[in-house]
Amino acid sequence: MRLLICGDVVGRSGRSVVRDELPRLRETLDLDFVIVNGENAAGGFGITPKICDQLFDSGADVITTGNHVFDQREIIPHFDREKRLLRPDNYPLATPGRGWGVFPDRRGRKVLVLHAMGRLFMDPLDDPFAFAARRLAEDGLMRTVSAIAVDFHGEATSEKMAFAHFLDGRVSFVVGTHTHVPTADAQILPGGTAYQTDIGMCGDYDSVIGMKKAISVERFVRKMPTVRLEAADGPATLCAAFVETDDSTGLAARIDPLRIGGRLSAALPDR
After folding, report:
1. Looking at residue 145, what is its pLDDT?
2. Among 53, 124, 175, 251, which one has the highest count of C-beta atoms within 10 angstroms of its own C-beta?
3. pLDDT of 270
4. What is the mean pLDDT of each run of 10 residues along the chain (271 residues)?
5. Closest C-alpha to 170, from 132, 198, 196, 197
6. Structural contact between residues 255 and 12, judged by C-beta atoms closer than 8 angstroms
7. Between the CA of residue 17 and those of 21, 26, 46, 77, what are the distances in Å?
8. How high is the pLDDT of residue 32?
9. Which residues contact 191 (CB under 8 A, 6 or more apart)?
10. For this structure, is 68 an active site residue?
11. Rounded distance between C-alpha atoms, residue 148 and residue 251, angstroms
12. Catalytic position from the list 68, 115, 153, 178
């Protein structure tokens, strides 16, 4: 199975590069399943139902989110209507939405998508390790599903790495989102799970993690409130991870970083 997960979409610029590039990537990489993290898609803060539809129309099969998931209040009831939209599962039980789902790839095979959020330097949510263990007790590779994809939304590299090693051999891949900066550690762990600490963002890198740099710099220099942060609107880079799994085990056969457009050096996996 050939899967792609795109990093945090930031603002109009990020949405544009996904809209322009994802349909072509589905064809050129012969993709079976695509996940897009959309938590910053609405001007850098959350996501709206309209933007969800745009990302699905561009070729996303599932949309994940993160700590900004509820910044746009209109998205709250949308979780009841759109099961392909996920929020981190380790939010409290009464929170709208869910953090996992089983979805068909383009050939009808089942893909389990797990979405969790870290707790170091983040909101004090429930234990993501316990959440993942409970879910994997219900669904397993080549037992109920053909692939298991994990988006771990977190700040601390140590927590992301620990989470991946905790799941090594039990899921197809674990990739990190949230910091918006792609890391250089894409690898297959000893148990066969693909991993990258952070896959970066889909946004303008002439910025401060996707936001207009003058406003962000002023906040650091003056340490005083400024005008509201705004998403940068220059040419964006689409950052993602491409993973191919072994059809006999569901574990990873390869993982390649992908970068297209904007300021970052290009990286496109061989087909």
Report:
1. 98
2. 175
3. 87
4. 98 98 97 98 97 98 97 96 97 95 98 98 95 96 97 98 98 98 98 98 97 92 86 97 98 98 95 77
5. 132
6. no
7. 6, 14, 18, 27
8. 98
9. 168, 169, 170, 251
10. yes
11. 9
12. 68
Q: 212 and 24 in contact (C-beta within 8 Å)?
A: no
Edge-first strand order for the sheet with 110-117 is 100-104, 110-117, 147-153, 173-177, 194-196, 187-188
Q: Which amino acid is at 177?
A: T
For strands 194-196 and 173-177, give the pairing.
Answer: parallel
Can you read off the two tokens belonging to residue 95?
A: 């929170």
The one-character DSSP state at 70 is T
Distance (Å) of CA 236 to CA 146, 202, 263: 33, 6, 7
For residue 123 the two structure tokens come to 């909101």
CA distance 9 to 11: 7
What confidence score (pLDDT) does residue 271 get?
A: 77
